[in-house]
Specification:
Layout (H helix, E strand, L loop, with lengths): L2 E3 L5 E3 L3 E2 L5 H14 L3 E3 L7 H11 L7 E6 L6 H15 L4 E6 L9 H13 L3 E7 L3 H10 L6 E5 L7 H10 L2 E5 L6 H4 L4 H8 L3 H11 L3 E2 L6 H6 L10 H8 L19
Parallel strand pairs: 3-4, 4-5, 5-6, 6-7, 7-8, 8-9, 9-10
Antiparallel strand pairs: 1-2
Helix pairs in contact: 1-2, 3-4, 8-9
Bound molecules: adenosine-2'-5'-diphosphate (A2P).
Adenosine-2'-5'-diphosphate binds next to helix 10.
């Protein structure tokens, strides 16, 4: 497992296990499977409604807390200052933890325009040591630039939809300029369409790997963090078995050329679902 250092020195595994759309009971099983397969980073969120299942799996695993990297996220209804503090406490309590490694603001919700206020509350949580790092998710160049202009703490990461069909080249340049790590959600493009792309098959065959492993390798070699989601044990194992091969420049270029700005998830410039 490879790690990367965030901008405050905290070390984060480059591959994490995502549990979006995994119901609480299934999250317990899937996280147990993932920890057994060697994952040490787990990515959940208040809105996934599976923090308890994640927490139970973490507790039952016996893996020492300081070997784990747990991320959860602030939901869109809780951007007011005091709501952030309350929501964070509630997430910690559902997880059964006394700190998280990374706390993310889930969406900027520009129409509500409270993300600067929410970030200031998250800075307090960070100062208290109850989140070892804080970051954002689904921030665009515009919302990220405003946050950087108006607040003190540079986010450790921006977690965005990112896969070969949506390569986010401009955002990645902006992140690099500010020392913000890029974290990819739906790194496999949610599975089917992307993984069947004919460009991936010859590369996969050359390395004796699957198209999913090739795509994850592309993320790693771009210096990102990726959080593939699966509830299938064989795929959970496969998605972390990506540290024993390397794509060459031509193969990276072939995958870069697949970018077509195709989003599977919502557009963060307008997404204002309150759930
Ligand atoms: P499942 O959970 O049924 O195993 P993403 O992380 O990009 O959102 O992709 C998640 C989707 O991709 C899920 O539908 C998951 O299916 C599928 N998936 C995860 N890993 C693999 C893999 N190694 N090969 C094929 N499909 C995968």
């Amino acid at each position: 497992m490879e790690n990367i250092a965030l901008n405050n020195g905290v070390v984060m595994p480059q591959i994490g296990f995502g549990v979006w759309q995994v119901p609480d009971d299934e999250a317990y099983t899937a996280v147990t499977e993932a920890l057994g397969a060697g994952y040490r980073s787990i990515d959940t969120a208040r809105i996934y409604e599976n923090e308890e299942g994640v927490g139970r799996a973490v507790a039952a695993s016996g893996v020492p807390r300081d070997e784990l990297f747990i991320t959860t996220k602030l939901w869109n209804t809780d951007h007011a200052h005091d709501d952030v503090l309350r929501a964070f406490d509630a997430s910690l309590s559902r997880l059964g933890l006394d700190y998280v490694d990374l706390y993310l603001m889930h969406w900027p919700v520009p129409s509500e325009d409270r993300y600067v206020e929410a970030w200031r509350a998250m800075e307090k949580i960070y100062a208290d040591g109850r989140a070892k790092a804080i970051g954002v998710s689904n921030f665009t160049a515009e919302t990220l630039t405003r946050l950087l202009d108006e607040t003190e703490t540079v986010p450790a990461v921006n977690q965005v939809e990112l896969h070969p069909y949506l390569a986010q080249k401009e955002l990645r340049v902006l992140h690099a300029e500010h020392g913000i790590a890029t974290e990819a959600w739906s790194p496999l493009g949610q599975g089917k369409g992307l993984l069947d792309d004919p460009a991936l098959r010859p590369i996969a065959d050359r390395h004796g790997k699957s198209p999913a492993q090739v795509v994850l390798r592309w993320h790693l070699q771009n210096g990102e963090i990726a959080i593939p989601k699966s509830v299938t044990p064989s795929r959970i194992k496969q998605n972390i078995d990506v540290f024993d091969f390397e794509l060459d420049a031509a193969e990276m270029g072939t995958i870069d050329a697949l970018d077509k700005g195709r989003r599977f998830g919502p557009d963060p410039a307008t997404f204002n679902w309150m759930g």
